[in-house]
Amino acid sequence: MGAENAEMKKKIESILLKVNNPSRYIGGELNSVVKDREKVGLRFAFCFPDTYDVGMSHIGMKILYSLKNRRENWWCERVFAPWADFEALMRENDIPLYGLESLDPIRDFNFIGFTVQYELCYTNILNMLELAGIPLMSRDRGEECPIVMAGGPCVCNPEPLADFIDLFALGEGEELNIELLELYENMKKNGGYSKKKFLEQAALIEGIYVPAFYDVSYCEDGTIKEVKPIGKGVPEKVKKRIIEDFDKVYYPETFVVPFSEIVHDRAVVEVLRGCVRGCRFCQAGFIYRPFREKTAETVVSEAKSLCESTGYEVLSLSSLSTSDHSDVEGMLEAAADYTEQRHISLSLPSMRIDRFNDKLMEQLSKVRKSGLTFAPEAGTQRLRDVINKNITEEEILSACETAFKGGYAGVKLYFMIGLPTETDEDILGIVSLASKIADLWYNMNDRPKGQKLSVSVSCATFVPKPFTPFQFEPQISPVEINRRQKLLLDAARGKRYMTVSYHNFRVSVLEAALAKGDRRMGDVIYRAWKKGCKFDGWDECFRFDLWQEAFEEAGLSMDHYARRAMDCGETAPWDHLDYMVSKEFLIREREKAYKGITTKNCREGCSGCGISKGIGRECFG
Amino acid sequence: MDKYPVRVFLKKKGRAVYISHLDLLRAMQRALKRSGLPVWYSEGFNPRIYLNFPLPLSLGTLGEREPMDFYGIEEIPMENFALRLGEVCPEGISIISAGAPVHKNRDIGSAEYRAVFSGNVPEIERAFGEFLASEKIEVKKRSKKKGEITLDIKPHIKIIGTDTGENEFSADFILPAGNELNINAGVFTGAFTEFCKSMGISAEIVCTKRLNIYCQNGEIFT
Question: What ipTM, to 2 d.p.?
Answer without folding.
Answer: 0.88
